[in-house]
Design brief:
Helices cover about 45% and strands about 15% of the residues. With about 625 residues, it is α+β, with helices and mostly antiparallel strands. The strands form 6 sheets. Strands 4, 5, 7, 8 and 9 form a 5-stranded mixed sheet that branches. Strands 13-14-15-16 form a 4-stranded antiparallel sheet. Strand 4 and strand 5 form a beta hairpin. The protein starts with a helix and ends with a helix.
Length: about 625
C-alpha cells in the first residue's frame, strides 16, 4: 500500500493545483482532478441561459474535447448493457440527457435512460450544496426537448421519418457531428455550459469552474457508504469497492484495484469478500488515482501502454533515471571532459548539476519510481516500485551517469545540430543499440524495465544486454555509419560500467584486448587518411567482426592491406606506422593469439581513434594560427 499512500500524500501536497488546467507539449489539456470527478471526451456543447433556456450549441473540435465531469462511484466504472442505469450527474451521452430521445427513434429499453439521469441531476440541483449553474442546466434539461433544439440548430440530423440518422447518406457536405462520433449520433457525449445575457459573455465554463467542483464534492460526500478501516491511512473512513479506471488516458479501461469476480478461485479460500483482502477508503482511492493520472500526464513516459513514472513527495520534478546525461544537464559534463579527459572532473561537474534537486538534510524527502502495464484491457499491474530517500536516489543517479559513461555524438540540440555529450545513454537508446533501431516497442519497454535496478540499486547490467550490444558494435558493415557510431559509443558505455577505464587513451595498458583495439583504430585512421574524400569503409572496419573473433589471423590480413595506403601517404604515414610498432611491442608473446576478444577491445579502439582525431584537429588548428600570424 506504500505506493497508494505516497500518491495520496502527493495529492494532499498539491491541493492548490486541483482543477487548474495545464497543457502538455502537444497542446492537450490536463488537470489534477477533484475528488468524485473524471474526464470524458465530449462531442457537443450546449449553452443554456441562467433562466434555463436554450441559447446555442456547436460540435466540439477534437483538440478541445477533453472535459472534466462529476461522477458517482458507479458511473465512474460503469460498463455493459446496463451502463445507462448509472448516469453521470451533469454531462453524459445524448441517449441519457435527452428527454425526447425516444420520440426521435431512440431504442426503447425496459426503463428510460433519461429517468435515471434526471433523478441524479435533480438530487444535486435540489440539495443545499447546489450551484446556480447546475440549477440552470437542470431547469433546461427537465423540459425534455434537447434533441429538438439540436435538430433545429442543425447540430443533429434526422431522416424523413424524423428519426436520428445512423450515418450520413453522402448527399451534400458531411455534417461535423459525423466526423467526431465513432457510432451513431445517439452516442455523442453532451456537455453543458451556462451563458449570461446580462454580461454579454460566457461565464467560466462549467467544467473549469472550481465552485462547481466544490459543490458536487460536498454534495456527494453526504451520500457515501458505511465506514471501514482504510488499509492505506489506518483511519476509519467511508470505504469503496469501485476504483478508478482511465489511468493512462481517457480511453483506458484497465484498473489497478478490482475484485468484481466473486466466483471460482478468486480468493483462494482465504477470504469471503473483497474488503477482507484490502479495504480502501473512497477519499484515498480517489485522491491517489487522480494524483497518478495527473503525474502520468505531467511527467510520465509511456511506451506501448507501459508507463514509467518518477516523482518526489516534496518536489515533483525529479531527474528521470531512464534519460541520458544530456537531458539532465546539456552543458557542463562535456566541458569537464574536454578540460581534463578524466571521469573525476566529470563526476564533480555532474554532481553540481544534481545539487539543485537535493533537499534539506533535516527534512525527510523521498523519491518514487513506478512502472505500470496491463496484460488485458481490464486489469493493470504495478511491475516495479521503489520508494527511497531523495539524496540516496541522486547519489545512485550520479554513480550511474559517471560509471556508465562514454563520449556520444548522436544527440541534437534545439537547432537540430548534432552535439557531443559525455555521460550515460538513455535506456531507450540502449535498447536500440542492443536490438537495432527497428526494434518493436514491446522489446524496448522490457529492456527499460530491466535496466531500472541497474540504475537505482547498482545491480550489474544483464550480461545478455552487454553481449548483444558488443556484437552489434563489432559488425559495422551491417548498418549505416551514423547508426554504428551510436551503437559503438553506447556499447563502450555499457562495457565501461564494469571496466572503469578513462576516455583518454591509456598508453600504459598492456591488456591484449585493449591493445588489439588500438591496433585496429590506427589501421582504420591510416587507411581513412589515404582514402581522402572517398566514403567507402576501410578494411579495418570491414574486417572488424572477424577481427573480434580471430584477432591474430585477421590482423595479418589487415596489415597486408595497409601497405599500398602507407606507400600512397609516404612520409605522412610514418607517425601512424610508429604507433603500430609501439603497440605491437607491448604485447606479451603468449597474448598475441586468436582467442576471441572481450568488450575491452572496443574501449581501446574508441580511445585510440579519438586521440588521433583530436591530435589532427589540434595540429590543423596550430597551422591555421601560424598562417594567420604570418
Amino acid at each position: 500500500m506504500s505506493w497508494l499512500l505516497n500518491l495520496y500524500e502527493t495529492y494532499e501536497s498539491n491541493l492548490d493545483r486541483v482543477g487548474v488546467i495545464e497543457k502538455k507539449y502537444n497542446g492537450q489539456e490536463y488537470t489534477l482532478l477533484p475528488v468524485s470527478h473524471t474526464t470524458q471526451n465530449a462531442h457537443i456543447q450546449v449553452e443554456v441561459t441562467e433562466d434555463g433556456e436554450f441559447h446555442t450549441a456547436f460540435v466540439i473540435d477534437k483538440s478541445d474535447a477533453s472535459t472534466l465531469i462529476p461522477c458517482t462511484e458507479k458511473s465512474a466504472s460503469r460498463s455493459g448493457v446496463k451502463a445507462y442505469q448509472f448516469p453521470y450527474p451533469l454531462h453524459d451521452k445524448l441517449s441519457s440527457v435527452a428527454g425526447d430521445y425516444a420520440a426521435y427513434g431512440g431504442m426503447i429499453k425496459e426503463d428510460e435512460p433519461f429517468s435515471y439521469y434526471i433523478e441524479e441531476l435533480g438530487n444535486w440541483a435540489n440539495s443545499p450544496y447546489a450551484h446556480p449553474k447546475v440549477k440552470s442546466i437542470y431547469q433546461y434539461v427537465r423540459k425534455g426537448q434537447l434533441i429538438k433544439d439540436l435538430v433545429e440548430n442543425r447540430i443533429l440530423y434526422v431522416d424523413d421519418h424524423n428519426r436520428l440518422l445512423d450515418k450520413w447518406d453522402g448527399k451534400g457536405e458531411r455534417p461535423l457531428i459525423f466526423s467526431v462520433v465513432a457510432g451513431g449520433q445517439e452516442s455523442a457525449f453532451v456537455r453543458f455550459n451556462v451563458y449570461s445575457p446580462s454580461h454579454s459573455k460566457v461565464l467560466t465554463e462549467v467544467w473549469k469552474d472550481t465552485e462547481v467542483y466544490d459543490s458536487y464534492v460536498k454534495y456527494y460526500r453526504e451520500l457515501l457508504g458505511s465506514e471501514d478501516i482504510c488499509y492505506v491511512t489506518g483511519r476509519m473512513l467511508p470505504s469503496t469497492d469501485r476504483h478508478a479506471n482511465k489511468i493512462r488516458n481517457a480511453a483506458d479501461k484497465a484498473k489497478l484495484i478490482s475484485a468484481n469476480d466473486t466466483s471460482g478461485f478468486t480468493f483462494r479460500g482465504r477470504f469471503t469478500t473483497s474488503n477482507e483482502a484490502a479495504s480502501i477508503s473512497y477519499e484515498v482511492s480517489q485522491k491517489a488515482h487522480n494524483a497518478l493520472k495527473w503525474l502520468i500526464h505531467r511527467q510520465g513516459k509511456t511506451i506501448e501502454q507501459r508507463v514509467f513514472l518518477v516523482w518526489g513527495n516534496d518536489a515533483l520534478d525529479i531527474p528521470d533515471p531512464t534519460e541520458d546525461t544530456f537531458a539532465i544537464d546539456p552543458t557542463s559534463p562535456l566541458v569537464a571532459v574536454r578540460k581534463s579527459n578524466t571521469n573525476q572532473e566529470f563526476a564533480n561537474q555532474f554532481s553540481k548539476a544534481l545539487d539543485g534537486y537535493k533537499s534539506d538534510l533535516y527534512t525527510k524527502s523521498n523519491v518514487n519510481i513506478l512502472v505500470l502495464d496491463s496484460a488485458t484491457t481490464g486489469r493493470m499491474a504495478v511491475l516495479y516500485y521503489r520508494n527511497m530517500d531523495k539524496n540516496l536516489y541522486l547519489d545512485r543517479l550520479k554513480e550511474w551517469h559517471t560509471s556508465c559513461a562514454w563520449l556520444h555524438r548522436y544527440r541534437k540540440d534545439e537547432q537540430g545540430e548534432f552535439v557531443e555529450f559525455y555521460g550515460a545513454p538513455a535506456t531507450k537508446d540502449i535498447a536500440f543499440a542492443t536490438y537495432g533501431p527497428r526494434t518493436g516497442d514491446k522489446i524496448v519497454k522490457g529492456l527499460m524495465e530491466r535496466m531500472l535496478p541497474c540504475i537505482v540499486d547498482k545491480v550489474r547490467i544483464p550480461r545478455d544486454i552487454v553481449t548483444s550490444a558488443f556484437h552489434r558494435a563489432s559488425n559495422p558493415v551491417s548498418m549505416e555509419k551514423w547508426e554504428w557510431e551510436k551503437t559503438l559509443s553506447i556499447a563502450c558505455a555499457l562495457i565501461n560500467r564494469e571496466e572503469g577505464l578513462q576516455l583518454a587513451l591509456d598508453k600504459e595498458n598492456d591488456d591484449r584486448n585493449y591493445l588489439f583495439g588500438r591496433l585496429l583504430a590506427v589501421a582504420d585512421v591510416l587507411e581513412r587518411r589515404a582514402l581522402g574524400d572517398e566514403t567507402r569503409s576501410s578494411n579495418a572496419i570491414r574486417y572488424m567482426n572477424s577481427f573480434s573473433m580471430h584477432p591474430e589471423r585477421t590482423w595479418m590480413t589487415i596489415q597486408k592491406s595497409l601497405q599500398p595506403y602507407q606507400a600512397r601517404l609516404g612520409t605522412k604515414a610514418t607517425y601512424l606506422t610508429k604507433i603500430i610498432d609501439e603497440i605491437a611491442s607491448k604485447f606479451k608473446l603468449e597474448d598475441f593469439n586468436n582467442k576471441p576478444l572481450t568488450g575491452k577491445y572496443l574501449l581501446g579502439f574508441y580511445s585510440q581513434r579519438h586521440e588521433l582525431y583530436q591530435r589532427k584537429e589540434n595540429n590543423e588548428g596550430a597551422e591555421d594560427a601560424s598562417n594567420n600570424e604570418e
